[in-house]
Design brief:
Helix content is about 25%, strand content about 20%. The protein is an alpha+beta fold. The protein folds into two domains: about 60 residues, no CATH class; about 55 residues, Arc Repressor Mutant, subunit A (Orthogonal Bundle). It contains four helices and four strands.
Length: about 150
């Protein structure tokens, strides 16, 4: 979009054969776009000299980082980042956990299953979700829903 939000400058697709989620985007003064996100695709486009040209994890998400030129016509760089387990920036993960916590307390979501809420906010492994939710809030998602603590 242009700076006033009235016109599309370009639109493109970035991804592989599975799932990608763009989590953050920034523009530099030249108009190049920097995008980070999560992928479980084994084949996202990477550029020559990439830090990692293939994912490291098995069936979990890896972080990707890419830079797209100002006209949206070419990748300046693209790489996988991450290790052997589920990878995610801590700030983004905390934001998603907070959104899950909020939905668990919202009466409008009382009939929704905890798994539906977790999946809606991008958690595809319920054991992982429950573990990090309990680490963050001191109670499992079910316990939190039944007896929230400040």
């Amino acid at each position: 979009m242009n700076s006033t939000g009235t016109a599309l400058i370009y639109s493109t697709y970035f991804g592989g054969s599975n799932r990608e989620s763009g989590n953050d985007i920034a523009l530099d003064s030249a108009g190049n776009a920097y995008v980070t996100g999560l992928t479980d695709s084994p084949n996202i486009p990477t550029t020559p000299g990439a830090f990692r040209s293939t994912p490291v994890g098995s069936d979990e998400f890896d972080v990707f980082a890419m830079k797209l030129n100002a006209t949206g016509t070419a990748l300046v760089y693209s790489t996988y980042l991450g290790g052997l387990d589920y990878d995610e920036g801590p700030v983004y993960q905390m934001q998603r956990l907070e959104r899950c916590r909020r939905d668990l307390l919202d009466p409008a979501h009382a009939a929704r299953h905890i798994s539906d809420i977790a999946f809606a906010w991008g958690f595809n492994d319920l054991a992982h979700f429950s573990r990090i939710f309990k680490q963050r809030f001191g109670a499992s998602p079910r316990e939190w829903r039944e007896h929230p603590t400040p």
